[in-house]
Design goal:
By secondary structure, this protein is α+β, with helices and mostly antiparallel strands. It has six helices and eleven strands. The protein has an eleven-stranded antiparallel beta sheet.
Length: 286
């Protein structure tokens, strides 16, 4: 079912879509829909217990080269049965607001490594655990095939799934048998699903930091109508793999997603990325 004003179901996504702005990232969008069924009003994210996320572009730290992990080694890595504990950014963190940011050589090199990592990904699948603005957690599976294809499925009892066929993004409610369709180009998924990306050239990077655990890049998007949103990507310093991301919506609420059991070798079934218009009718692209 196509909804143009159903903000109770997908508030962040519809604000972003209506303004042509990617205000939230893939799973963050879905979580807005999932939480709307059980959480009337979100509360600010809990305070962080890890100060590693009080980042600022003016305070770079030494960058350590990541260890080389071959596809075979990654594919044979022991499966992690217990979900990781997402690291929640400090809500008091002070992110530089100027759009005219300058970065030193270490920060540029760090951003270039993250860009190369994202650009070299062709297939990625695994599990995720998500922490919403109110501190609630959900888990699920995800599948990515570049360019442009992704599927996120939440574990029961959450009935939400998200599918992109490369052009459109469908947010599906299996319980109600409805789905909303949005242009993929108007979601932050473009950062993860594009064939090639240069973060420094293709996005508005406002902070780059690195420590012994993570390399973090914060991307900011501004819009006069919906406000400013941010995306924090976190890459493991030792293995060079994507670990988690955090979306901060224009109201200042954070949604954090940590991923694990990653597989970059196996190609997902192409059928996972088909949008089912027969079973879930309606919902033409906005």
């Amino acid at each position: 079912m196509k909804r143009d004003t159903d903000y109770a179901a997908h508030p962040a996504l519809l604000r972003a879509s209506a303004a042509g702005l990617a205000a939230t990232f893939a799973v963050g969008i879905m979580m807005s829909a999932a939480q709307a069924q059980t959480t009337p009003l979100p509360r600010p994210a809990p305070k962080a217990r890890n100060v590693a996320f009080q980042v600022a572009a003016s305070e770079p730290q030494p960058i350590r080269p990541p260890a080389t992990i071959t596809p075979v080694q990654q594919a044979q890595a022991p499966r992690q049965t217990k979900p990781p504990e997402p690291v929640i950014p400090d809500p008091r963190r002070n992110v530089p607001a100027s759009i005219f940011m300058t970065f030193d050589a270490n920060q540029k090199a760090s951003a270039a490594k993250v860009s190369a990592y994202l650009s070299n990904l062709s297939n990625l699948s695994g599990n995720f655990v998500q922490v919403g603005p109110d501190g609630s957690k959900t888990t699920g599976d995800f599948y990515i095939q570049k360019p442009g294809k992704v599927r996120f499925e939440y574990d029961a009892p959450t009935p939400i799934a998200m599918v992109s066929d490369g052009q459109s993004l469908a947010v599906r409610d299996t319980k109600l048998a409805t789905q909303d369709i949005y242009p993929l180009s108007q979601t932050p998924l473009r950062y993860l699903l594009s064939d090639r990306i240069d973060l420094m050239k293709d996005t508005n990077v406002v902070a780059v930091t690195s420590d012994e655990l993570y390399t973090s890049v914060i991307i900011e998007e501004r819009n006069a109508v919906v406000g400013t949103s941010r995306l924090m990507l976190m890459i493991g310093t030792k293995d060079g793999q994507l670990k988690q991301w955090t979306i901060t919506d224009p109201q200042g609420y954070d949604t954090t997603v940590a991923i694990y059991n990653l597989d970059t070798v196996k190609k997902p079934d192409p059928g996972l990325f088909k949008i089912d218009f027969a079973r879930y009718p309606g919902g033409g692209a906005n």
